[in-house]
Design goal:
With 369 residues, the protein is α/β, with parallel strands linked by helices. It folds into 2 domains: 181 residues, 3-Layer(aba) Sandwich (Rossmann fold); 176 residues, Glycogen Phosphorylase B (Rossmann fold), CATH 3.40.50. The chain has 15 helices and 13 strands. It has a 7-stranded parallel sheet, with helices on both faces. A 6-stranded parallel sheet has the order 10-9-8-11-12-13, with helices on both faces. Helix 2 links the parallel strand 2 and strand 3. It is elongated and about 65 Å long. The protein starts with a strand and ends in a 5-residue tail after the last helix.
């Protein structure tokens, strides 16, 4: 049994793969200690009963020199905290799922000559992983396409997929429930903070369906808390088969399993979870400066698992056309579902844990960093 530190930044796309990996390592008998940069998502780690420590951390903000200066000071403080933590626990390895909150611990692990394994979830690597990649003993990728964006390093870079939670894997392994003939279940997700454009466009598109279509439509939609009442009002009076509008869902595996089609942003977590369930999707990538959601969505579209609507073209009229076409073409939906499953990689969590153990074994025989 080894002691392993697991760390991740302050976003769901980083934290959930890290938790999944930590749980798999625990199942294998290893002692796992989770390290977060800042308090965000601490309650998720604590809910899984994984020992937790927090380091000082702040996001780097390219638009503000003051914010970047503060972030550097927090990073230095977090580095000193991490050195003390490593000296106290003496882990055999540090596994990082990326994000700015992981940087201090990875820097400290390198300083202490502790092996580091990095996991990159997006096609386009995050800034933290681009910076930290040169310190890694091994880099594990979700997508083969990521290789073109990484620097040339003398480090093994292996496509494994991203670890997914056991709760998702368990439900995905069960048969998908069949809807009565002609019914359709639309799942709308905007990420952990919701997405206002989805709240504006989807209800308007649904209002332009015929009453006969509306009567056969189930809608489950995640929204910002401040938008929930307004979105529910937009659906008011429509003869929908069922409607659920909430800011947060605790039963995501069941929602993925029940859905016929997903409309969502294209963060890696959402994309891979939908793929695991063979769920066809319409992705509306978030317009970020680095464009990583566009690249993620492009992989799904290229595989035949999704349609991509850039935000400028995500209008009620365009969505209505695609929604009707997919609803009426069961064969097309089935093809997209089969393509999605090729991206899901349910074995990823086991593969990642295998690589972590291999790196530790190699280090034991003098083959580490």
């Amino acid at each position: 049994m080894a002691k392993i530190f697991v760390t991740a930044g302050a976003s769901g796309g980083h934290i959930f793969p890290a938790i999944a990996t930590a749980q798999e390592l625990q199942r294998r008998g290893h002692s796992v200690h989770f390290v977060l940069g800042g308090p965000k998502f601490a309650e998720l780690v604590e809910a899984e009963k994984i020992p937790l420590s927090q380091l000082a951390a702040a996001p780097f903000n390219d638009r503000s020199w003051l914010s970047r200066g503060v972030a550097v000071l927090y990073l230095a403080w977090g580095f000193l905290q991490a050195l003390r933590l490593l000296a106290k626990h003496r882990p055999s390895l540090v596994f990082s799922a990326g994000g700015y909150g992981s940087a201090a611990l990875v820097f400290a692990a390198r300083f202490k000559k502790i092996p580091i394994v990095l996991n990159e979830q997006n096609v386009l690597p995050g800034k933290a992983n681009l910076l930290l990649a040169r310190f890694a003993s091994r880099i594990l990728l979700t997508f083969e396409e990521t290789l073109r964006y990484l620097p040339k390093l003398n480090v093994p870079m292996i496509t494994t997929g991203t670890p997914l939670r056991a709760s998702l894997l368990a439900v995905a392994a069960t048969p998908k429930p069949a809807l009565p003939n002609g019914e359709f279940h639309l799942l709308v997700l905007g990420g952990s903070q919701g997405a206002r454009i989805l709240s504006e466009v989807v209800p308007e598109a649904v209002r332009h369906l015929s009453p006969a279509e509306q009567q056969r439509l189930h809608i489950t939609q995640q929204v910002r808390a401040e938008d929930a009442a307004q979105v529910a009002q937009q659906y008011a009076g429509l003869p929908l088969k069922s409607l659920t509008v909430q800011p947060f869902f605790t039963d995501m595996p069941k929602l993925y399993q029940a859905a016929s089609l997903l409309v969502a942003r294209s963060g890696t977590g959402t994309l891979l979870e939908a793929a695991l369930f063979g769920l066809p999707a319409i992705y509306v990538p978030l317009e970020l400066a680095d464009g990583h959601q566009k690249l993620n969505a492009a992989v799904a579209e290229s595989a035949g698992a999704a349609l991509v609507l850039p935000q400028a073209y995500f209008t009620p009229a365009n969505l209505l056309v695609h929604l009707r076409a997919l609803w009426q073409e069961e064969a097309k939906l089935q093809q997209m579902a089969a393509a999605a499953r090729t991206l899901g990689r349910p074995e990823a969590v086991r593969t990642v844990a295998n690589h972590i153990e291999e790196v530790m074994e190699g280090t034991a025989y003098g083959e580490g960093i």
